[in-house]
């Protein structure tokens, strides 16, 4: 059953060397196993597989998000590392310091070196 099987996210990269530098040096992820020309990153027990493809950065939707306990702290840390966050104008969503609040969460989006939209998000209880 798929509900019992681990799921792995994909991170497409048009330039694997550049993408690895961004995720490892700027974002701070530790590379894991390399296979099939790509690399696995483990984040909070889940895995993401970065692979080379010409389709990187073509989605207009978020590729993935990290669920964090303190979005303000994560955004501040990532900004200090050189990550540039997106600013969106969305109905019913209040945006302050690159963080959108609404829909039961605080979320901030950034584009990686390949143009993929990634996010950090904190659920509000």
Report the β-strand fraction as a percent range. 35-45%
Distance from N terminus to C terminus (CA atoms, Å) equals 31 Å
Mean pLDDT: 95
The whole-angstrom Rg is 15 Å
Q: Describe the biggest sheet? A: 5 strands, mixed
The percent range for helix content is 10-25%
* Total count of strands: 9
Q: Output the CATH class name.
A: Alpha Beta
- Quaternary form: single chain
Could you give the order of the helices and strands?
EHEEEEHEEEE
Order of neighbouring strands in the sheet with most strands? 5-9-8-7-6
What is the CATH topology descriptor?
2,3-Dihydroxybiphenyl 1,2-Dioxygenase, domain 1
Backbone shape: globular
- Give the full name of the CATH homologous superfamily: 2,3-Dihydroxybiphenyl 1,2-Dioxygenase, domain 1
Structural class: alpha+beta
Uncertain stretches of 5 or more adjacent residues: none
Number of helices: 2
Instruction: Assign the CATH architecture.
Output: Roll
Q: What report would you give on this structure?
A:
- The longest helix has 12 residues.
- The protein starts with 7 loop residues before the first strand and ends with a strand.
- A 5-stranded mixed beta sheet has the order 5-9-8-7-6.
- The chain has one domain: 2,3-Dihydroxybiphenyl 1,2-Dioxygenase, domain 1.
- The protein contains 2 helices and 9 strands; from the N terminus they run βαββββαββββ.
- β3 and β4 form a beta hairpin.
- The chain is of the alpha+beta class.
């Amino acid at each position: 059953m798929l509900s019992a099987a681990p799921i792995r996210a994909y991170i497409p990269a048009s330039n694997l060397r550049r993408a690895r530098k961004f995720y490892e040096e700027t974002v701070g992820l530790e590379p894991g196993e390399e296979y099939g020309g790509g690399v696995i990153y483990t984040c909070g027990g889940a895995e993401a597989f970065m692979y080379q493809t010409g389709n990187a950065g073509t989605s207009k939707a978020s590729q993935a998000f990290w669920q964090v306990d303190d979005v303000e702290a994560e955004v501040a840390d990532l900004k200090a590392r050189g990550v540039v966050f997106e600013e969106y104008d969305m109905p019913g969503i209040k945006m302050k310091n690159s963080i959108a609040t609404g829909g039961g969460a605080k979320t901030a989006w950034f584009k990686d070196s390949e143009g993929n939209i990634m996010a950090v998000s904190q659920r509000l209880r």
